[in-house]
Amino acid sequence: MSLYRTALPIALVAILFASSRVALAETYTPGQRIDARYGDFAKAFLETHCVDCHGEFDPEGDLSLHDLGPVEEVNADTWRSVWAQVKLKEMPPQDEEQPHVVDRLRFSDWIVGELSRVLEDKGGFFDHLDPNKGNFVDHDLLFGPLPDGIQLAPASTPARIWRVTPQEHITRLNELINAEPAFNPEMPGLRTHGDAVPTNHGGELKLYFGTDRIIKWQGGTVAYATSVKSVPAVLSTARDHGLENYPDFYTVNSAEATQIMSVAGDILRYMAEGPLSIANPEQITDDPNSYKMEGDIRGLPTALVYSTKVVRPITPVYDLLDEEGVTDERLRAAVDFLYEALTFRPPSEQESDAYVAIVKQSISKLGKKDGAVLGLSAIFLDRDALFRPELVEKGQPDRHGRVMMQDWELGLAVNHALRYIQPDEELRKAIVEGRMRTREDVRREVQRMLADDSIRKPRILRFFRDYFDYDRAGYICKDSKALADTGVSNRGTAHYRAMFDATASTDRLIELILKEDKDVLKELLTTNRVVATNADNVYFGRKRTDEERSEAVAEAKRAVAKATKEADAALEAAKTELSELEQFLDVHPEETRKRKGELAEKKRAVTTAQRKFDAATKKQKSNSNHAVEEAVLSGDRIYARVSRRSFGNGSMKPDRILATVPEGQRLGILTHPSWLVSHSDAMDNHAIRRGRWIRERLLGGGIPDVPITVDAMLPDEPQRTLRERMRVTRESYCATCHHKMDPLGLPFEMFNHAGVYREVELGKPVDTTGEIIDSGDPTLDGEVANAIEMIKRIAESERVEQVFVRHAFRFWIGRNETLNDAPVLQEAFHAYQDNGGSMKALLTSLLTSDAFLYRTKSGRLVAESK
Amino acid sequence: MLNRRNLLQGMAAGVGAAFGTPLIPNQLMASPVSNTTRKRVIFFMQNQGFDPKTCIPTGMSSSGSLAKAKLPEPINALEPYKDRLHIINGLHGMHTSPSHSAFFGALGGYRGSDGVPPSGPTIDYQLSRALPETLLPHLCIGMDSIENMTTKPTLATLSASGAGQPIFMHSNPNHLYQMLYGGIASGEIRRQHEARSSVMSQIERLAAAKDHALSKSDKLRYDQYVQGFQEVNGLRDRLASVSDHLRKFAPTVDTRYTNPEFETDWHDVLLDLGISALTSGITNTLTIGSGRGEIFGAWKGLGIEQQGHNLGHMDQPDNPIWIKIRQYNSRMLVRIMEALESVPEGSGTMMDHTLVVYTSNNADKQHTNGANWPVMLLGDLDGAFKTGCFTQLDGKRPINALYTSLLRAAGQNLDRFNMTETLAKKYDDATGPLKEVMA
Q1: Separation CA A510–CA A513 (nearest Å)
Q2: In 3D, which of B281, B263, B63, B227 has the Cα closest to residue B143?
Q3: What is Dmax (Cα atoms) for chain A?
Q4: CB contact under 8 A, A254 and B228
Q5: Which one, of A807, A529, A800, lies nearest residue A668 by Cα?
């Protein structure tokens, strides 16, 4: 602990004395350009530390570096590999003499600078900026004391524009046409205004039109889905694991722009006319029977009935198009409203004028309605509707060249850190009144928003999705037979729907833990709680052995036979009683009136007994799942945020229970099917991916890219376990990297690839052992019996919490950390730790840090060393 | 993380008509007027399944020539073209979950289902990139009930440029005409075209004006956004600059566009537009979604009163309704071939350098496990494919193998399309193209 406590003051001292030390040749500032030629600098490093082993003759790994030469396009791959190995301290090997820490850093920076220069017009070099390589920055230097000779620059982030994500974009558009329900503190889990538009039952992100007014439809759920107007997300993303959205990842291409323009027209028409823009007048009625659907029209837009109640937001766009004629006032109101709805800030006078002119021009060409729709569509393509600028065009640089964001830029940065919709009234007021200019202003707003549950903060949940990667399970295509072998249902889309439900359940569990805000990471890793659906009784169950399964089948047969026999006897008895009474009444008809009630009762008894008998017989024929001993999950009712409004009766159901996981079988969300299946493949578990996740996201280790010479295939041997097939990764060439991952992933073999707990695999006790190797925290290292033991050990680690903080930094600051960010990271970590593992404290610290508040236009000081 | 290649890939992803690199007009329109040999592929995807009995000549149970065979009634319109026909039975798509529809999985060769986003690029998109470049590398048109085409004039269910990147198909012929031929149109279409052009130009101007204060890397990224508008606007200009050429191929707008009596009027004119995009050389890949990849659809213009889901519940063989639909498809295929044959290209006609792939987005029938996925090929794509024959496969090779064959014919060197070795062990008993269909 004391080690870390001292690190911050040391770093600050380094900053304070920056001006006196900067002139010294031996001082090193991270990110500063290394102006040195290969022959004067890098060659000596290679000769001192590399060439002994990687020389001309019989070089290690068949890699010669003696004649590598300056960085050029032809040797860029080799230099890239050298950079990764040196940066990760993989090389020189630990038993060799190590370069001084500053020499290592300078050498790494030099390579980055040279690769960036040489590859500038050849696709560029971005490895050091990739979030998957964020851990390449030495953890101990970030959180421990800095050696002499390192001078940190004050933290800041390059000025930039940040393209909105598909989910942000859809949620933003959704605000224009759908009024989401207000937050209900009695049912806090239900999807509400400000939550992200969720993916649907199949995992597709779509914007739906008018579903809040549909009161009747013909056909089943698929017919409903086809007949309802919807448009899929237009903006694309290329990543589906890890941090997906750094500012420099994406742009908007011409195909996307064209489609946005088309979607804009649909949205504007719906804003103006509601369902009338997508349905015939007779379909809009509160008496659904008054609209006659003739014949089979399933799947057609005419198979829907909309209520007359107006629920969409009524906006100045409606006013403009509803009123006769066009007035300047109405037109400008519509433009200004739409501009702010799409960019989250009011337009400047110049911007407003420009769009008013476009709309006027369009109206003059096409008439009012078509012209207004076309002209207003242009706003959907404004830069600030698709990119969020952090350009610090206002404000004076401080002596380090940093400019603090202010007003709308700062307000929107804070808003974006937590939300997908426009700033709430208080934040907007603060921006407009000039109260978003200081660190304290930010602290005030962040703390206010974090304290208010009714202000939904979907971006926090997004972080946990990105960090844990538990939201991929429904997208992992399973082989049908392999899925059936796990013991879960492989019928239709049952498994995939269960997985999308599981994602929503894990979302909700995380929200509950965030609500408690106590030891958040540790609790996520070790909670014994589960938010569950009915299907989870199987997914959280235990796979039976073949013998147990046979016994279960036999037992079920016996039980059914017994129940059938009893039901049969009861039926016969009831029939006999009825028959006797009927015979009696045949003989004594005068008694009929008197015993009418008794006769009716005996008939009912026969009917009831017959029903029970039929049920028992049916059970005899039923194909129950005996492959899994179901978990007995029970608990209080709870809700999860799902796409209930988009898919009629087939919607995902929000209903859940908060239950306790089977003891000894599960611990924390890494043992939940949502995470396990997300880290599996079509046929089996993916121990390497799981291990890599533990290595990178918890232990803070880095894994170099797979060499292109590696044919990454496990042998196809269905009668061998995954562990046995992974023998190929233990061979010397692969083991260098795989020993960092495989022993961390194999303990999860206690679950099969549907996430069902198992004790036996291929007829033998499953081997769940593993090992934590070279974690960077000696107290963690050592063998583990299974995933639960490993998780328990890891969850106690301070280093693991620091790694968590590093990932939070990347997500909220939008870039990889550099050594210059060490003070920010340490402060954030202490905020988290000193407040009992509080996510709110961590967030407040990050969002009031220099890295979040300040921008540099030159990119000279930090991160963007290219 | 962005480069020129990414940009081009991105630009090609999205609206059914994706924009390629800016080409000078004479390069762009090389196909009909120069000696350059181009290639093109058309995918015709009829929904509700393609029952093999509706295409395999009676009595043919093993591979052989079609020369002496008589094509079944549903496809008898193809009889004069059977020397160019290749009927393939016995591919499978069990990994695509095709019951009701495999959606993106039908052309992607991966699991698809209702509401499931694409998990990778589809074959039509990949081919559009592999074939000699045209102005719009890829055009998708979708045919459905008139209500669906009006309410949802664009829809994405079949084609994709990558994971989570659907490509939209066009279903309103007025919109599509405006996009392709607005510059040579008159009246309302011209007015709409001009107004839209004006707005897009102003959007480009506004976007370009906001590129100040950006860092070098951000500017590169932002420039790509601005260039997107330049591409859209440039496309218009380039189309305008070859307007004389386009006039030769553009269909005539009639009342079927503006006042269709049946949905089949729009189906017909959408096909006209698709054909014209091929014959004029604007596009190299056309995807036709008859039923738009879903489980509904209507063909009332053929005298079929029933529509939608029930059509899929019927057995197709000897069913008068399905005979009408399949005959209608066949006539469309004939129209495509006749149009392409009428345009000289190289030493022959366009059809010589073309392949039509006719199949369904849900294998052989609506409720299917995909164990059999019948396909018809028409044409030989410059001699790359065998023709005039029926091929019976053993059900052990997936549709991905056919798609691999298509990409091989387009000059791509690959052994598998969208299938990992792990899955291939389960679903493919060979590697590389489908040798039974390659010439």
Answers
A1: 5
A2: B263
A3: 123
A4: yes
A5: A529
Place of tokens 């009524």: A314
Per-window interface: A 680-739 vs B, CB < 8 A: 681-683, 713, 716
Sign of CA dihedral A244, A247, A250, A253: positive
* Nearest-angstrom CA–CA distance, B255 and B20: 32
Whether residue A159 and residue B199 make contact (CB cut-off 8 A), yes or no, is no
Q: Which domains are present in chain B? A: 4-173+246-427 (3.40.720)
Rounded CA-CA distance A134/A466 in Å is 14
Cα–chain-centroid distance for residue B388? 23
CA distance A93 to B359: 58
Alpha carbons A558 and A551: distance in angstroms, whole number: 10
Closest approach of chain A CAs to the CA of B284, in angstroms?
17
Residues 6+ apart with CB under 8 A from A83: A108, A111, A112, A115, A127, A128
Give yes or no for a contact between B87 and B73, defined as CB atoms under 8 angstroms apart: no
A positions 543-562 inside 8 Å of B (CB): none
pLDDT tens per residue, range A369-410: 999 999 999 999 999 999 999 999 989 999 999 999 999 999
- Of A537-551, A577-591, A726-740, B99-113, the one with minimum mean pLDDT is A726-740
> What is the domain partition of chain A in residue ranges?
2-153, 315-390, 545-626
Pick from A365, A360, A387: nearest CA to A352: A360
* Rounded Cα distance, A108 and B422, in Å: 38
The token pair that represents A188 in the structure block: 């806090």
Q: What CA–CA distance (Å, rounded) separates A415 from A343?
A: 12
Distance CA A341, CA A356 (A): 16
Q: Write out the two tokens for A856.
A: 């540099």
Identify which of B152, B222, B228 has the shortest CB distance to residue A161. Answer: B222
Q: Is the peptide bond before B166 cis (omega within 30 degrees of 0)?
A: no
What's the rounded Cα separation, in Å, for the pair A687 and A671?
13
The answer to whether B178 touches B188, Cβ cutoff 8 Å, is: no
Q: For residue A646, what pLDDT is reported? A: 65
Both structure tokens of A169: 């974009």
Say if the Cβ atoms of B206 and A378 lie within 8 Å: yes
Confidence of residue A22 (pLDDT cuts 50, 70, 90): very low
Amino acid at A155: A
User: Strand pairing of B283-290 and B136-143?
Assistant: parallel
Contact list in A for residue B296 (CB cut-off 8 A) is: 223, 226, 298-300
Q: Do B52 and B88 contact (CB within 8 A), yes or no?
A: no
Question: Tokens 């579903």 appear where?
Answer: A211
* Segments of A155-275 assigned E as strands: 157-158, 160-163, 206-208, 214-217, 230-232
| Residue B51, min C-alpha distance to chain A (Å) | 22
Residue keyed to tokens 């991105």: B10
Contact residues, chain B, for A233 at CB < 8 Å = 164
B430 DSSP assignment: S
Which of chain B's residues have a Cβ under 8 Å away from the Cβ of A238?
A: 162-163
Task: Determine the distance in angstroms separating the CA of A97 from the nearest CA of chain B, rounded to an integer.
Answer: 36
Span A230-270, pLDDT tens digits: 988 888 787 778 998 998 888 888 778 888 998 999 999 99
- Distance of alpha carbon B14 from the chain centroid: 14
Per the CB < 8 Å rule, is A362 touching B7? no
Q: Which two tokens stand for residue A212?
A: 């809040």
- C-alpha span between A345 and A384 (Å, rounded): 9
Q: From the CB of residue B349, how many other CB atoms can be counted at a distance below 10 Å?
A: 16
pLDDT beyond 90 at B213: no
Neighbours of A738 (CB within 10 A): 21
* H or E element at residue A371: helix A368-377
